[in-house]
Amino acid sequence: MRMMINRGILLLFVTMAVWAKLGAQVSKPDTIYAMRISSDIRIDGKLNEPEWQKVQHISNFTQRELNEGEPASEKTEVAVLYNDKYLYIGVWCFDSKPNRIVAREMERDFKHWAEDNFEIVIDTYKDNRTGFLFIINPNGAKSDALVASNGSEINRDWDGVWDVATKVNEAGWFAEIAIPFSTLRFEKKYEQIWGINFERNIRRKREQVLWQGWSRNYDLEQVSHAGTLVGLYGISDSKMFEIKPYANTGFERNLEDSVRSRIFKTGFDVNYRINPNVKINFTINTDFAQVESDINRVNLTRFPLYFPEKREFFLEGENYFTFRMGRDVVPFYSRRIGISSEGVEIPLLGGIKTLAKFNRTSLGIMSMQTAKKDSFPTANYSVIRWRNDVMEESSVGFIGIHKIEPGRVNLCYGTDLVYATTTLLGDKNFSFGGDFVCSYTSDYKNKFGGAYRLRLDYPNDLVEFDAGYEGVDKYFNPEVGFLRIQNYHKFFSELVFNPRPKGFPLIRNFVFKPVDVRYSIDRTTGKLITFFSEYRPFGFVTRSGEVFEFNIKRIGDRPEEDFEIHNGITIKEGEYWYTFYELQLRTYGGRRLSAFAYYAWGDFYSGKRRIYRYSASWKISKYLGIFGSLHINRISLPEGTFSVKEFQGRIKFAFSPNLFGYVLGQWNNDDEQLLMNFRLNWIPKPGTDVFFVVNQVIDTSSQEGRIVDTVYVLKFVWRMEV
Questions:
Q1: Which pLDDT score is estimated for 19?
Q2: pLDDT, tens digit, for every residue of 300-309?
Q3: Would you state the pLDDT for residue 418?
Q4: What angle do CA 455, 425, 21 make, to 5 degrees?
Q5: Strand 76-82 relative to strand 31-36, pairing
Q6: Are 86 and 34 in contact (CB under 8 A)?
Q7: Distances (CA, A) of 539 to 186, 208, 443, 551, 591
Q8: Residue 462 phi/psi, 5° resolution?
Q9: Could you tell me if 103 and 591 are in contact, meaning their C-beta atoms sit under 8 angstroms apart?
Q10: If DSSP codes are grouped into helix, strand and coil, which group holds residue 567?
Q11: Torsion angle in degrees (nearest 10) through CA of 126, 131, 132, 135
Q12: 455 or 706, which is more confident
């Protein structure tokens, strides 16, 4: 018996070792050698310098989609060169049918998921957690992002300074990329060994190929499965001091008040690198005139809406400060700085931010000062976020957040612990973690409050599962955070199956969701606050990229007091339960013309509701694209019947990858205002920008329409290195 047990244990370990070996998804060679050169490479996409022929080329790419584990159907090669200033990456995307390459975007931060593209992720610290993501398409469009927590946190709003040029010919498409070492962060060592991985997407075939880590359970951003870049010696961040002064000018004309005022503002940002591991940002008289307008949404709930951060100063290094506890609790929400909860802009006098990375430790510190405006007093906002890597992919961290006003203080501080692995049973993702946050408000009778969460996550291709618990007490007050609900216990779980059965030639995978539950109860009374469940008996994704879903939703809500859901129409306090059904179909976004249709019907509080959503995108050429969406809610209640209509339209245009813009229009019948936003962006050289922005508010309450407010702004941002 003991021998049988020992053999069983031995077999288990051997099986797990085999799983681990298979799960590693390693393709040889898994190391790429960079070659030092003494001259600069001309970035023109031609790859005709002799150095490109001498350096090692890797070409062992493997399919993740559509046929996992099979060789790439089109040959792809990559090579790496460098000198004292730049890391150069050469890309050869051979294509047997270059006339069918999908490339209809050309602006910065293009929608790469619908284009032929090539993606690069570089883990400069080789810590299996953080990285820099660079994406290009055949038109020379580029996008970039910062990667943290082994791909679970991605800041796509980061804009690095780098350059690319591409060429398309009868053999395929080809690219030269130049990344200044000053754009990257890395340890101060003579020999650098980095993680690196590459991905190519061939959209007409829905084919996705990776160099390493090509399991469907992984994404390129999971840098723990990257290959290795070696051969880098004696490089440094030569540009330690960067100044970005700006000036904007223009005028605002308000026809309602018959007031015309001039706009003139100057300021600057300073980026100072003490060494490659530590960067300090200063900002004086901060301005965000060029930032895209928020999408205007009509709120048909009794809870506040969450809007994403779009301001550059807060987006750079955003991952250093990330501390999220789900959709209802965000202890640090940077939009609370300089923007009131009512949406009023408050001038930012300036601030300082420090980003540091030492071995397995990352540290972010930020302090901002706002000016006094109307009833809002001057205030200081400060945050410190420390996170330390433990084991292979796990972490432990701390956050502290301060808001200091004259005679008043609000503090929020907490800790988080995450155990994570991407090699469970060989190639499965798994994480488990907990968060705890405490707040202190000096002028509250009960000064202290708390929030906490436990979560388990198993996000994989065939089976997705998560479950957890979170709680917030009634005195928790994160004034520099986002809090949707207060004084509750919440239990949540979701289970999704994505089988890929054979015998269905048009179907890539089915999607079944037997469980998706979020149940919140009042901590004091134990009564319902909200309940949400979604059951998906049928859904699928086709091999051509279409997506279909049929969902059944069961919703519960118990407002403790009456609330106005629409003009003069009130939902009475009480407990409501209702069922909702929805159908949705999305066509493949890589086509020149794509669309989305959504229809939902069912009960709504004490009445009925129908929802219609339509959107369409027409990519006329790489120079011009049109997008439009219409969202209609028709609600019938005993208290009254009403409809809410929301429209959004966008025209994108691009003359080149460095000169592009858009016209955005938004309207809803609740506000009866058409909001127009025109934005033109010219990039004379990487890191330097010229913006021309026009914002208009048009009153549509009368038939003729009337422009009530117009703002014109011309903004220059220079980048100078010392």
A1: 40
A2: 889 988 888 8
A3: 93
A4: 135
A5: parallel
A6: no
A7: 44, 22, 52, 8, 21
A8: -80, -45
A9: no
A10: coil
A11: 110
A12: 455
How many Å apart are CA 4 and CA 539, to the nearest integer?
45
Given a contact cutoff of 8 angstroms between Cβ atoms, the answer to whether 633 and 644 are in contact is: yes
pLDDT of residue 14: 38
CA distances in angstroms from 328 to 89, 304, 482, listed in the order given: 42, 10, 7
Helix (H) or strand (E) holding 53: helix 50-54
**Looking up tokens 């987006």, which residue turns up?**
315
The gap from C-alpha 427 to its chain's centroid, in whole angstroms, comes to 25
The least confident of 113-122, 199-208, 677-686 is 677-686
pLDDT at 1: 40
294: confidence class by pLDDT, cuts 50, 70, 90 = confident
- Which band of pLDDT confidence, cut at 50, 70 and 90, is reported for residue 160? confident
193, 215, 146, 120: which is closest to 422 by C-alpha?
215
Q: Give yes or no for a contact between 414 and 449, defined as CB atoms under 8 angstroms apart.
A: no
Amino acid at 659: L
Most confident of 110-124, 255-269, 345-359: 110-124
Positive or negative, the CA dihedral 484, 485, 490, 495 is negative
CA distance 599 to 617: 19
115 within 8 A of 140, measured Cβ to Cβ: no
Assign residue 407 a region: left if phi > 0, alpha if psi is -120 to 50, beta otherwise? left
Token couple for 55: 């350096």
| 480: its two tokens | 């520099």
Rg of the chain over Cα atoms, rounded to whole angstroms, equals 27
First-last CA distance in the chain: 75
Cα–Cα distance for residue pair 571/582, rounded to 1 Å: 23
Is there a contact between 366 and 338 (Cβ–Cβ < 8 Å)? no
Residues constituting the chain? 722
Closest CA to 453 of 319, 322, 326: 326
200-203-207-209 Cα dihedral, nearest 10 degrees:
0
Cβ(144)–Cβ(686) below 8 Å: no
For 504-544, write each residue's pLDDT tens digit.
989 999 999 999 999 999 999 999 999 999 999 999 999 99
Angle at 623 between CA 619 and CA 625, to 5 degrees: 30
Q: What is the DSSP letter of 25?
A: -
The pLDDT value recorded for residue 5 is 36
Per-residue model confidence (pLDDT) at position 704: 75
Where are the chain's structural domains? 25-233, 303-486
Specify whether the CB–CB gap between 416 and 323 falls below 8 A.
yes
Widest distance between CA atoms in the chain: 95
Structure-token pair, residue 401: 């957040």
Residue type (1 letter), 652: K
Is-contact 365 280, C-beta < 8 A?
Answer: no
Structural class in CATH, domain 25-233: mainly beta
CA distance 590 to 259: 47
